[in-house]
Amino acid sequence: MLTGINIGNYRCPRTGWDLAAIMPDIFALEGDFRIRFSSIEINTITDELLAACRAGGQKFCNYFHIPLQSGSDSVLKDMRRRYTAGQYLARLGDIRAQIPRAAVFCDIIAGYPSETDENFEESLRFLDAAGFAGLHVFSYSRRAGTPAAAMTQLPDKEIKRRAAVLHAKDEELRAAFALSLVGTTQQLLAEEETSSTISGVLANFQRCVVKGAHKTGGLADVKIISANNGVCMGVIL
Q1: Contact indicator for 29, 53 with CB cutoff of 8 Å
Q2: Beta strand ranges found along 86-230 (DSSP E)
Q3: Which pTM was predicted?
Q4: What would the pLDDT profile of 147-160 be if each residue is shown by its tens digit?
């Protein structure tokens, strides 16, 4: 996993190369491996980076974790985010055009002080339109010295209610994404084994369980035959 603070803004201090420029050299390394990014901001995912990732073939995981925080433009402005909901959605289209079947997860905050009931409903509608594979839900907590701390705070009960709604939406999205993979062939990284099964993650970060034996730490092509509660079941090809 390539990770860091604002990795999309990476520049090599010696050569000046950006993230897109170094990806071909990473993919050229010998051996069987997969590369994925940690959290990366939507406004730093350039056309050049997407092209470089696509060129990596199976060595690049078709997975992105892209912070959203809110699907409401009003709240995004108050948060001082560098994109609108429309810009985020448009870039998702570009990502999926370049990286087929890309699984996109996002961070989202429940109960930001300026988030009205209508803003929250906007976010829920946005989550459905974006087709995320899953959410990472955070409940807003006050931090001294931030602009949000000076705002009128929402009641704790309301923050918890909204977080619960988002957690339910997360389960719904994960279940739907798992079901969408039934009938497809995916690459599994085997992480754990029992006497009769192995489990691990697909390149799109989907959990999967297969029957049979396989070396943990190795990669295997599997066909997804079913999904239950957000977990795929498959067979090794």
Answers
A1: no
A2: 103-110, 134-139, 185-193, 197-202, 207-211, 219-228
A3: 0.93
A4: 999 999 999 999 99
Q: Which residues contact 92 (CB under 8 A, 6 or more apart)?
A: 104, 130, 131
28 and 116 share one domain: yes
| Phi and psi torsions of 174, nearest 5° | -65, -40
What's the pLDDT tens digit per position in 163-194? 999 999 999 999 999 999 999 999 999 999 88
Question: Of the candidates 224, 126, 134, 138, which has an alpha carbon nearest to the alpha carbon of residue 175?
Answer: 134
User: How many angstroms separate the CA atoms of 159 and 186, rounded?
Assistant: 38
1 in a structural domain: no
Largest interatomic CA distance in the chain: 57
15: which residues sit within 8 A by CB, 6+ positions away? none
Query: In CATH, what number is assigned to the domain containing residue 154?
Result: 3.80.30.20
Distance from C-alpha of 158 to C-alpha of 208, rounded to nearest angstrom: 35
**One domain, residues 142 and 203:** no
* Cβ neighbour number for residue 218 with a 10 Å cutoff: 12
State the total domains in the chain: 2
CATH number at residue 229: 2.40.50.140
CB 104 within 8 A of CB 64: yes
Regarding whether 107 and 52 lie in a shared domain, the answer is yes
In this structure, what DSSP letter does residue 155 have?
A: P
State which residues form the domain around 155.
7-180
Dihedral angle sign, alpha carbons of residues 58, 59, 61, 66: negative
Residue 4 exposure: Cα atoms within 13 Å on the Cβ side: 8
